[in-house]
Design goal:
The protein is an alpha+beta fold. Helices cover 38% and strands 14% of the residues.
Amino acid sequence: MSNRSPAARTARIALLALALGLAALALRLGDTALRVGTGFSARVLCSLAFVSGLDPRTSYDEYVAFVLGPAHALVRYEVDDAERAVESRAFYRRARAVHREGLGCVLVADDGPDEERLRSAAFPRSAPPPAALPVASPPPAVARELEDALAEAFAEPTAAPPHRLTKAIVVLHRGAIAAERYAPGVDAATPLLSWSMAKSVTATLAGIAVGEGRLALGAPAPVPEWSDEDDPRHAIALDTLLRMSSGLAFDEHYGAINDVSIMLFTRADAGAYAASRPLAHPPDTVWSYSSGTSNVVARLLRDAFGRDLGAMVAWSRRVLFDRIGMASALVETDASGSFLGSSFVFATARDWARFGQLHLQDGVWEGERVLPEGWVDYVRTPTPGAARGEYGAHWWLNAGRPGAPEDRTWPSVPRDAFAARGMSGQYVVVVPSAELVVVRLGLAQAEGDALHGIERLVARAIGAVEAWDAASATAGTRR
């Protein structure tokens, strides 16, 4: 018979229960990390191989392994060229991503349709090729400055990692290509990954849907999980979502077990996962960047078309991509058939430049209005909760802190600049005052504008085209 007191025995049982609970939690977190790691490597390698046409071994070694960190040593992958699929394994976990024509790659999620059903959706493009963007002829001194700026942006800051791995840069001035450059293995026909630049594309499609009456900007968003009027999330509007002020609890810190990774790399329905989150703050009180809210918006678009993926794809091409000549553009989906509106749009650098030029031209293309009147002003109006004026409606801004405009993201770039931005150094920067669009795409091994070189690139491009404009004005010519 034990000599321990009842209190001691109770404490021992409590400690044992705690230890067992912690062990179970560790197992669960470890399993989640394995699912995320295999899901990420399968999906991203599939897209880079079968959409971008990049070498998968190089993509894994230069990029995917750096994102996974030390855990990459646990991951094994196999590229199936015949099936156009990538399978990734780590211990007992496996993930598979398959390519579909016109839709890019989709992850075959545990809780979604099987691969055969997913493959049944394919939407090849049939639109005629668009007219090429015009090419400008800068004066020799301006051309040299632009080429030097691009060369600097491609150069690696140090011999040691992390590397910036710039893949493409296009500079448009007054709608014409003033300069462009590509990395080996990439050219003007290579579609490249958006990461979070997709959010700006999602906002653009949402704006067109608002203009057509498919969605309402200020009314409660028709999200099934929030339909009960007693649910505090019922008041969340599309405007609130676009401004990243929904108040939904969502962990955007990238890692193996956070919300954004779980949503993108383990779940069949990204929008449903995000919509299931509880409120952390009352709507419209706190600005908090969230990929989850972008996928709620994308699911609203899906639902507006009765969950008919073919109809939604055809509409997106007709109202946006084909209208402005983005023939290379495609939006990858989750397994439920929603656009992954937070992260997975592919287009060539020139087509990303077209997207920026559309917004530079206030949503008008070749004399026809594509975006509702006032939409561009709406997306580049600072969100109240963004203290430094750094965010509008799914676009990043350079407005600066109210009363202290010098306190802004890129001090050497004009305040009217706004940008679609994505992880690993994706940028479409629009500078209305300079009539300039700068696209920078890459697979940078770490985050940070300094590594990516974007502020200096844009500032140098502005200086070059301003000198060009001044010389033209002195000569009495108008380009």
